[in-house]
Amino acid sequence: MNVFVIIPALNEAQSIGRVVRDVRQRYDHVVVVDDGSDDGTADVAREAGAHVVTHFINRGQGASLKTGIQFALDSGADLIVTYDADGQHSSNDIVKLLEPLERGKFDVALGSRFLGNSALNIPTFRKIMLKAAVFFTRFASGLRVSDTHNGLRAFSREAAHKIRIRQDRMAHASEILDEINRHQLRYVEVPVTITYTEYSKGKGQSSLAFGKVLFKYILGRLMK
Fold first, then answer.
1. What single-letter DSSP state applies at residue 89?
2. Which of 203, 194, 193 has the alpha carbon at shortest distance from 14?
3. What is d(CA 67, CA 107) in angstroms, rounded to the nearest whole number?
4. Residue 193 C-alpha from the chain's centroid
5. In 3D, which of 154, 1, 7 has the Cα closest to residue 67?
6. What confidence tens digit (pLDDT) does each residue in 84-142 have?
7. Sheet of 153-156: strands edge to edge?
């Protein structure tokens, strides 16, 4: 199967080389979408062996995933994985995500840091906000998921074609779940490890900012 791993990146020169090299030990097609970085992220990713697609201005993680997924589809991908650039994911988990798709039993595999309690050093407030997001997602969409904002996912080619990402920034995570529900795609959650380091906590969205995004999303859904 032709596997493409999509990594959105904004000013990740410090980590992106290590992340790309780690993934490329198993998968040849690693696509880094440089989302308007000014620290040489694209050069570092390219030197590590990634295909690099560039946004000349910062558009957001949702827009980067949309660009990367379209690049993968145009390049003949059979399976598409989304993966974070800050080093908090483990490439070992990609194998576990792809297995149910390769067997043809599911269309989408969603990584969950809570199924196996594998969220290492997660900030307390972030955990509370993530649990709140899970509760609302179950209420709004009926999807029985345990983790709603995990960047580690895998899609079949057919699922990637159907899912439309319109939210340019962090609300795309909830939007993807809505699309899975709308198209009645077969999905499965897979336990994955998320390691929160000082670097990843500093690079990632703050818990307060995440809470604001979640509140806006909930308000928008309620208004509909």
1. S
2. 203
3. 20
4. 14
5. 7
6. 999 999 999 999 999 999 999 999 999 999 887 666 677 677 777 777 777 777 766 67
7. 51-55, 29-35, 3-9, 79-82, 153-156, 108-112, 187-191
Report the amino acid identity of residue 10. L
Burial of 211 (0-12, 13-18, 19+ CB in 10 A): middle
* Torsion angles phi and psi, residue 106, rounded to 5: -140, 160
pLDDT digits (tens, 9 = 90+) for 141-160: 678 888 888 999 999 999 99
CA distances from 129 to 23, 38, 99, 220 (A): 29, 31, 30, 17
- Burial (CB count within 10 angstroms: exposed 0-12, middle 13-18, buried 19+), residue 166: exposed
Buried b (16+ CB within 10 A) or exposed e, 89-113: bbbebbebbbebbbeeebbbbbbbb
Residue 51, strand partner residues: 31
- Per DSSP bridges, beta strands 108-112 and 153-156 are antiparallel
Alpha-carbon gap, residue 209 to 60, rounded angstroms = 14
Against a cut of 0.90, is the pTM above it? no
SS3 188: strand
